[in-house]
Amino acid sequence: MAAVKPPPDRLYGRSRGKTLRARQEWLLERFLPQIRWPDVPFAVTPRELWLEVGFGGGEHAHELARRHPDVGYIAAEVFENGICALLSRLAPEEAGPPAPPPNLRLYPQDARPLLRGLAEGALGKLFLMFPDPWPKARHAKRRFVHPQILAEVARALRPGGEWRIASDDPTYQRWVEEVLAEQDFFAVERREARPAGWPATRYEAKALAAGRHPVYWSLTRR
Ligand SMILES: C[S@@+](CC[C@H](N)C(=O)[O-])C[C@H]1O[C@@H](n2cnc3c(N)ncnc32)[C@H](O)[C@@H]1O
Question: Is omega for the bond preceding 38 within 30 degrees of 0, making it cis?
Answer without folding.
Answer: yes
